Amino acid sequence: MKLFDKKKDLILKITNLVLLIWLISAITFFQVALVDIIMPEQELSYKEYEILYCNYEEELKDLNNNCLIRYESEKEFQTRKDINRKKSLFLSLGNIIIVSIGIYLLNKDKK
Question: Is the pTM of this model over 0.90?
Answer without folding.
Answer: no
